[in-house]
Design goal:
This protein is an all-alpha fold. Helix content is about 45%, strand content about 0%. It contains 8 helices and no strands. It is elongated and about 110 Å long.
């Protein structure tokens, strides 16, 4: 008898809790700021800045992160000729790594220019791109400056590789291209 009484009391309490629940009414929020955060306006007026607006223009002369350093020589034919005659590889013989240069060259340049620099890359052999000259062509007197300028800005159908290669890697590729040129001219 006592067991039946205990079971009935538990059932009555359970039914009373379930019957008082209303799904149409939201539950009480104990900490409403955690559920409904306060939104702040990004471009609101503020006394913290001289202009009064929080979003500011970057300071003059700054370089955004993960962006290439500015190149002083312009992307013109005059700039190309200037780079060709005056720009030299800043890496000395101890800093030049032909193994790294070859890896980078094979990834970015070899598909068109060929692994030997003869202008017979896979895309040229499949006739996807035509007219890629070899580095030893007589009418094409390339220098370290002209190679760097073309890697930085691109030329004709070749695009720029400034976003794929950092400055040191570009100079490593330049050194490797010069090595390929001397190997072809032998």
């Amino acid at each position: 008898m006592k067991a039946i009484l205990k079971i009935s009391v538990v059932l009555i309490l359970l039914v009373s809790f379930v019957s008082c629940q209303k799904n149409s009414r939201p539950n009480y929020q104990y900490m409403p700021d955690m559920y409904e955060s306060v939104g702040y306006e990004a471009y609101q007026e503020s006394d913290a800045f001289a202009s009064g607006v929080e979003a500011q223009i970057p300071a003059e002369g700054t370089i955004p992160r993960n962006q290439p350093l500015p190149f002083e020589i312009k992307n013109t034919m005059e700039g190309y000729e200037y780079a060709k005659t005056t720009l030299n590889n800043p890496l000395d013989s101890k800093q030049v790594n032909f193994t790294e240069g070859k890896i980078l060259y094979d990834i970015y340049c070899g598909i068109c220019h060929g692994t030997k620099g003869d202008g017979q890359g896979k895309l040229v052999q499949r006739e996807k791109i035509l007219g890629v000259p070899g580095y030893d062509d007589a009418g094409r007197a390339i220098t370290a400056g002209s190679i760097y300028h073309v890697i930085y800005y691109g030329k004709n159908t070749m695009g720029s590789y400034v976003n794929q290669l950092n400055e040191t890697e570009r100079w490593q590729v330049v050194a490797y291209v010069e090595k390929l040129k001397t190997d072809l001219e032998k």
